[in-house]
Write a structure and sequence with these properties.
The complex is a heterodimer of chains A (274) and B (249). Chain A is of the alpha/beta class. Helices cover 42% and strands 18% of the residues of chain A. Chain A has an eight-stranded parallel beta barrel. In chain A, strands 5-6 form a two-stranded antiparallel ribbon. In chain A, helix 4 (111-128) packs parallel to helix 5 (149-160). Chain B has helices spanning 7-20, 31-52, 54-59, 62-75, 86-96, 99-102, 108-123, 164-169, 194-204, 209-215, 225-240; strands at 143-145, 149-154, 174-180, 187-192, 244-247. The mean pLDDT of chain B is 96. The chains are: A alpha/beta (274), B mainly alpha (249). Chain A: Pfam families: MbnB_TglH_ChrH (PF05114).
């Protein structure tokens, strides 16, 4: 299954399904909950047509403070209402001192932070009665690390029992920005916990810095890393994220088609077994 | 022995810098990358405010506007999980901190309220109307109104005018009704006289036109045949515009 992030800019096209036809859609509950009117009608139309996965933005499970229980209640009800198959969030935080910052901030790769985050994930999983797929974010600076990023992720996954959302572009971006080997990094992850993959574009803005923009087509080296990665894991849903510089639908469909072809090629053995 | 601060303190230092710009040093954090985060976050917040408040932003000198957004984000702990609701916190912060006076923009809170109301009415959760029928007596039957509306009162006519000098000359009592069309979801704006604003408020409370007219003299309003006819004509027009849905059965 190869899906596409649902955005208002191309909602009509996705609902009509003539120029673009993903296998599923994904959206952030935050952008759609507690609204009515025109966009609620559009949301209902699109969820009638496609299976839905949700990708949260503001649970902020790495925050020092407790998750917001009122907001969690809304999330639970939203996931049930729209029969959401996978709910993912981020291995990061976006809120501190009870103030939201609306960005995914890098966790300190430290044991106390890993334990803290794992406890938060467990608590939310218990409340939602479903596993969370936690995304490895792109980040631009480490923060007082005392352990490797891979060790931090392994610690959180092992302690919380969560699943992983592998954003292959994020790993490519991080490997470039922090000068490590992307494949070696992926090989250290608990790959049996990968439940979902994200793919997106990026932009190099300096000789030593790539930004994870979601505003460009997927780069060829990221396709190559994706192809290598999926050979290491069992089939999972794959999502194309495109949030800015929205191209023609034919161009997005071409990216979906290319991703599908790679999945088919690398996972055909699994398909035969299934 | 590890003498460095624990992760909570590191996160507080990191985010305090991102919000306020207060200098900080955290092991492993490259200053240029910290600056990248601060720039990206401020850009997102500013962009959100400028999308929500295009008229306000265009009406205020650039430096002053940037200062407002920076001050808001640094001093206010944003609580909205949903970014589209963040402009409401900006508006509330402006009112609570008397920004009309602080920034010498006397119509600022009116303008922010007006622009926010459009977003709020457009996005508000669906509200089921009471049961209604299409015909009835305009004077004696309680009316059923479209529940998806906001009635705003202003000191300045920000719904009609954007120029400072003209706005300042027209200080008074201004009323605007915003309602969402049920089928299209579009937001309609209607400027109201103080009388029609009062009528709208009373109708929403279930009072009949007849009772409103009978009460009017206590407010110092002289009820004439013309006022009564104009009131009904207004309601008929608002039925065509899908603010008045009909009559209580």
């Amino acid at each position: 299954m190869v899906g596409l992030g649902f955005r208002r800019e191309f909602a009509e096209e996705m609902i009509s399904g003539t120029l673009i036809s993903p296998d599923f859609i994904e959206f952030a509950p935050e952008n759609w909950m507690n609204i009515g009117g025109y966009w609620k009608k559009m949301l209902h139309r699109v969820v009638e047509k496609y299976p839905v996965l949700c990708h949260g933005l503001s649970l902020s499970l790495g925050s020092p403070e407790e998750p917001d229980s009122t907001f969690l209640r809304y999330v639970k009800s939203f996931l049930e209402e729209y029969k959401v198959r996978i709910y993912s969030e981020h291995l990061s935080y976006s809120k501190c001192d009870n103030a939201h910052l609306y960005d995914l901030l890098p966790m300190p790769f430290r044991m106390d932070a890993a334990r803290h985050m794992a406890a938060r994930i467990r608590k939310v999983q218990d409340y939602l009665q479903r596993p969370l797929a936690m995304e490895i974010i792109s980040y631009y600076t480490p923060v007082a690390p005392e352990m490797s990023e891979a060790d931090f992720i392994n610690e959180v996954v092992q302690r919380s029992g969560c699943q992983l959302l592998l954003d292959v572009n994020n790993i490519y971006v991080n490997a470039f920005n922090h000068q490590y080997d992307a494949k070696a990094f992926i090989a250290q992850l608990p790959l049996d916990r990968v439940a979902y993959i994200h793919m997106a574009g990026h932009e190099q803005v300096a000789p030593d810095m790539i930004l994870d923009t979601h505003g460009h087509p997927i780069a060829d080296p990221v396709y190559a890393l994706f192809e290598w990665t999926i050979q290491q894991i069992a089939p999972v849903p794959v999502l194309l994220e495109r949030d800015f510089n929205i191209p023609q639908m034919q161009d997005l469909q071409a990216e979906l088609t290319r991703l599908k072809a790679i999945c088919h090629q690398q996972w055909k053995h699994h398909e035969l077994v299934a | 022995m590890n003498s460095s601060p624990d992760s909570r303190v590191l996160q507080q230092r990191f985010t305090t810098h991102l919000r306020t710009g207060v200098r900080t040093t955290i092991p492993g954090v490259a200053p240029d990358r910290l600056a990248h985060y601060r720039h990206a976050i401020f850009h997102m917040v500013k962009d959100t405010m400028e999308s929500a408040y295009p008229v306000t932003c265009a009406n205020i000198p650039r430096r002053k506007w940037d200062h407002m957004v920076k001050t808001f984000f640094a001093r206010h702990a944003c609580t909205a999980h949903q970014v589209w609701k963040l402009p409401l916190e900006f508006y509330t912060y402006a009112v609570e901190n008397s920004w009309d006076e602080v920034y010498d923009v006397p119509y600022l809170s009116d303008l922010l309220a007006f622009e926010w109301a459009e977003i709020e009415v457009f996005n508000m959760e669906d509200v089921a109307p009471a049961a209604f029928v299409a015909t009835g007596d305009w004077r004696e039957t309680p009316l059923v109104l479209n529940p998806e509306y906001r009635l705003l009162s202003f000191k300045y006519p920000v719904h009609q005018e954007a120029k400072r000098a003209r706005l300042l000359k027209q200080q008074g009592a201004w009323f605007v009704l915003l309602h969402r069309e049920p089928v299209t979801g579009h937001v309609q704006f209607t400027g109201l006289s103080p009388w029609l604003a009062f009528v709208t408020e009373q109708l929403a409370a279930g009072i009949t036109v007849k009772d409103i007219l009978e009460y009017a003299p206590q407010l110092g309003i002289t009820v004439t045949v013309e006022l009564e006819a104009d009131t009904v004509a207004f309601l008929e027009d608002m039925q065509r515009r899908q603010f008045v849905f009909g009559f209580r059965p």
